[in-house]
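Re: [ENG-882] Designed sequences occasionally contain unexpected residues at chain ends

Forwarding the minimal case from QA. Structure tokens:
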């Protein structure tokens, strides 16, 4: 390897000997290299006359750290879009299957999802602003929309239609909501709107607010998506840990567990919701009903070994955001799932029967659609890639522009695949200049492939599609009821929705008859939920179903009874306890979960008895959460601190919700980092010195992003993307939760802290490198034997006797031992002049009486505090004046230098002593 410096250009020319070249088995490949985190690739890399890339090194970079292997960055022939017919030839399908186009560009552009209304018209979510450039310019321009299409001649192609709602800012979803109406919302907004076509011109002309407090701001990949009508008549979305519901009296909402989903929601025949992860590359929630709360299931539990390995066709271009660690060598394809999108439980009737009830999702980075089989074991699910043993996938393509982002059971009984057919499938925060992926994008000109998109029908050569076109809007309620027995789940779902929206009570008797006498379970399930949605659910009927011979019906009866209990029929409490002794594991689990949710008396004893009789994995999961509940109210990962104010508790709870919805995909549910191959997707948060240090570290990381190695450890791609578009309150909540939880127990972060850091770092360009970030953050000055620590009073707070003031800087603690009065002081004399920027300490409350008496603890924080510095111990400069706060304290000081630091307590409290422990001082030594 030869490195030649060109002084005038400030560049380094890398020359490789022939023996270092790696062919990757592709004719165009010449030189090869691997970019480390210290290297920067220009917007348009230059090349020597021999064809070797010229790589710009940061100023002062050590060229000995530049190592190269396995990555080709020389210009290649651009990846060009194929015609629809040519792409069709590139699919690699299982025997007997075929892909047929039903709608494509130029009629539609960059589709992200589809949905059908009661008359079979297809609505297409067109994300026309997505990744038009490698810098994601124009993402939030109002150029996207929702189009509507019809197959008027019934030839299987949707030829008639156009834009139904236009000029939208990256809409999050489309949900048909009755005749000629849809629900949707825009990115960075908080309101769902209903758009209706009132004059029949096929364009929405009426806009009404449906509900608010629904959205979030930030990266468009991290916001809520897929508003989805569940079998239980509630509407679910990804990200949000709540569900909403239309009623004749308005929209209501309830809290749910955290689904950790990103792009895709669906349900199975038993009404269980399935959520699709994004960055995780796997389904995010599928083990238990999401509305019954959170249960501690470790990542990877329920996934067959090797589930995270994709088997896409060789791509050779290796355009993976995770760099070469994410690439299958020689083939240039993805070696571990990383960007899943869209999902569907296929419930149609015009594909082979062995597909019914199977879970499908897309992995657009791997260019695959995966078929997943669910196996129930002891009440829990195990997901299996149906074709893993064959090292294959259900649908593959040799076209690198195939981007499957959604799957949908269609009215014609087949399954539709939404193919964005796009060059870049990673949002711009992961494609910054200098990144590996950016170099690949420019190498193959992937940023030039925009404005396309195809919708495909997956069918089988031996089964004709159903050509009966839905006309539900033109049918009576009695006619809609008949569709509840249709073999295609789409017809059943849509008929149920429309019956609930109509609120026609005339069909109640026939619905009750279906529940009692239908030969198949599925019509009985839907009929029950229509009755529930009409407010006509009879408790007697529900109890009859609780005694049904089939465990699935008993389970469904439990499910639907929740509505009656919440409306005031508490008599079902006895049924819940009784059914914890059912012969079915599934029924017992749900009975326990419901009883836990509603805090039914006797649930603790019932859980113990159930666990003693049945130690299956599902029972153990639920029973243990009842018998040994988490020691926390708002954080599963950090113990509650009674000294936090109500405002601080709200902030931490908000931060926990955001963490579970967003951050946990990379950092793991327990904060230990999500495993990827032999490494982690992101650093562990548990007992993390950086997080326990100065709060500027975590705030700067969230606001401006972080990339590169940390303490000589590498992680998958960009460690933290910039999230400065979020509010100061949002950042403060996340930072507070992370610092307080995961055994960090650090002080909280305020919105004022975030605002100061935001202003101070406004000029930061791109994500921080770790070394630069560390250098910009105040460091903790460690306690040394040369420090002289004195105080007006000295009693170790945990010892109860006379002690030394230095205990305030250790876990032992320090206390005045007597109630607070003006004039108490605490002082540190340093061996040299320092600059102090911040002080942190905890002030633990003192319990009154026995804990069973329920008396509140006495707060021990300083009621009124003055902090001063001095160079000689005589002339003092005040750097802080104000009240101390409930533990933990984080006090930012005015800039001042001194050899002495003094704290004076000027308040008064008849019971509360002044106590401090685990004090941290942040600043710099000056000499």
């Amino acid at each position: 390897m030869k490195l030649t410096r060109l002084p005038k250009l400030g560049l380094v020319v890398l020359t490789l000997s022939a023996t270092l070249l790696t062919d990757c088995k592709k004719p165009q490949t010449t030189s090869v290299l691997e970019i480390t985190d210290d290297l920067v690739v220009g917007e348009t890399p230059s090349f020597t006359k021999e064809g070797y890339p010229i790589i710009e090194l940061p100023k002062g970079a050590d060229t000995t750290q530049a190592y190269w292997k396995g990555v080709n960055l020389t210009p290649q022939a651009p990846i060009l879009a194929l015609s629809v017919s040519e792409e069709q030839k590139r699919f690699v399908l299982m025997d007997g299957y075929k892909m047929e186009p039903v709608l494509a560009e130029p009629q539609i552009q960059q589709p992200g999802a589809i949905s059908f209304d009661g008359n079979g018209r297809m609505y297409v979510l067109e994300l026309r602003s997505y990744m038009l450039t490698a810098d994601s310019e124009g993402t939030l321009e109002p150029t996207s929309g929702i189009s509507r299409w019809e197959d008027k001649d019934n030839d299987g192609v949707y030829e008639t239609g156009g834009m139904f709602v236009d000029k939208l800012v990256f809409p999050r979803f489309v949900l048909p909501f009755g005749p000629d109406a849809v629900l949707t919302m825009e990115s960075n907004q908080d309101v769902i709107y209903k758009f209706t076509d009132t004059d029949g011109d096929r364009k929405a002309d009426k806009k009404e607010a449906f509900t608010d407090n629904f959205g979030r701001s930030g990266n468009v990949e991290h916001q809520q998506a897929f508003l989805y009508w569940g079998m239980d008549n509630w509407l679910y979305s990804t990200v949000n840990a709540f569900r909403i519901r239309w009623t004749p009296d308005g929209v209501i909402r309830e809290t749910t567990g955290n689904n950790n989903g990103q792009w895709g929601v669906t349900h199975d025949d038993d009404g269980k919701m399935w959520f699709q992860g994004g960055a995780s590359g796997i389904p995010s929630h599928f083990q238990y009903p999401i509305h019954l709360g959170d249960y501690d299931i470790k990542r990877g539990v329920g996934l067959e070994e090797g589930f995270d390995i994709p088997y896409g066709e060789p791509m050779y271009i290796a355009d993976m955001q995770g760099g070469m660690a994410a690439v299958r060598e020689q083939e240039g394809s993805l070696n571990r799932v990383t960007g899943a999108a869209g999902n569907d439980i296929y419930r149609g009737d015009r594909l082979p029967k062995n597909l019914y009830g199977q879970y499908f999702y897309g992995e657009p980075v791997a260019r695959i659609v995966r078929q997943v089989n669910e196996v129930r074991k002891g009440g829990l699910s195990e997901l299996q890639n149906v074709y893993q043993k064959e090292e294959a996938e259900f649908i593959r393509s040799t076209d690198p522009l195939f981007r499957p982002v959604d799957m949908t059971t269609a009215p014609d009984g087949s399954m539709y695949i939404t193919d964005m057919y796009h060059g870049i499938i990673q949002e711009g925060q992961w494609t910054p200049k200098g990144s590996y992926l950016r170099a690949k994008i420019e190498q193959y000109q992937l940023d030039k492939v925009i404005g396309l998109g195809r919708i495909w029908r997956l069918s089988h050569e031996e089964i004709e599609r159903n050509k009966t076109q839905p006309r539900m809007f033109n049918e009576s309620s009695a006619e809609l009821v008949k569709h509840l027995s249709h073999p295609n789940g789409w017809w059943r779902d849509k008929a149920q929705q429309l019956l609930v929206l109509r609120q026609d009570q005339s069909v109640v008797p026939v619905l009750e008859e279906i529940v009692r006498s239908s030969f198949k379970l599925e019509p009985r399930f839907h009929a029950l939920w229509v009755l529930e949605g009409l407010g006509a659910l009879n408790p007697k009927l529900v109890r009859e179903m609780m005694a049904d011979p089939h465990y699935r019906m008993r389970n469904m009866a439990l499910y639907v009874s929740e509505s009656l209990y919440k409306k005031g029929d508490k008599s079902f409490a006895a049924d819940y306890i009784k059914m914890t002794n059912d012969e079915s594991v599934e029924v017992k689990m749900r009975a326990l979960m419901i009883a836990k949710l509603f805090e039914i008396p006797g649930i603790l004893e019932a859980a113990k008895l159930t666990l003693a009789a049945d130690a299956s994995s599902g029972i153990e999961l639920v029973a243990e959460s009842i018998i040994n509940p988490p020691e926390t109210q708002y954080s599963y990962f950090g113990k509650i601190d009674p000294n936090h104010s109500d405002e601080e508790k709200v902030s931490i709870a908000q931060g926990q919700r955001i963490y579970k919805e967003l951050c946990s995909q990379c950092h793991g549910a327990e904060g230990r980092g999500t495993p990827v191959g032999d490494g982690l997707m992101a650093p562990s948060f548990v007992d993390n010195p950086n997080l326990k240090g100065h709060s500027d570290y975590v705030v700067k990381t969230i606001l401006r992003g972080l990339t590169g190695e940390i303490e000589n450890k590498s992680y998958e791609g960009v460690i933290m993307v910039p999230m400065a578009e979020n509010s100061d309150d949002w950042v403060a909540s996340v930072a507070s939760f992370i610092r307080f939880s995961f055994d960090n127990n650090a002080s909280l972060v305020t919105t004022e802290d975030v605002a100061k850091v935001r202003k101070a770092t406004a000029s930061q360009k791109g994500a921080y490198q770790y070394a630069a970030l560390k250098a910009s953050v105040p460091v903790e000055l460690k306690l040394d034997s040369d420090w002289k620590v004195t105080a007006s009073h000295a009693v170790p707070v945990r010892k109860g006797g006379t002690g030394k003031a230095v205990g305030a800087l250790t876990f032992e603690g320090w206390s005045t031992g007597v109630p607070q009065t003006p004039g108490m002081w605490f002082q540190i004399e340093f061996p040299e002049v320092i600059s102090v920027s911040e002080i942190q300490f905890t002030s633990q409350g003192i319990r009154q009486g026995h804990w069973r008496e329920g008396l509140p603890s006495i707060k021990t924080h300083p009621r009124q505090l003055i902090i001063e510095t001095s160079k000689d111990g005589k002339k003092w400069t005040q750097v802080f004046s104000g009240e101390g706060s409930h533990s933990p304290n984080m006090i930012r000081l005015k800039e001042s230098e001194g050899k002495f630091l003094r704290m004076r307590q000027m308040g008064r409290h008849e019971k509360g002593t002044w106590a401090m422990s685990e004090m941290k001082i942040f600043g710099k030594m000056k000499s």
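QA comment: On inspection the terminal residues look reasonable. Residues 474-625 form a domain with the Leucine-rich Repeat Variant fold (CATH 1.25.10.10). Proposing we downgrade this to a documentation issue.
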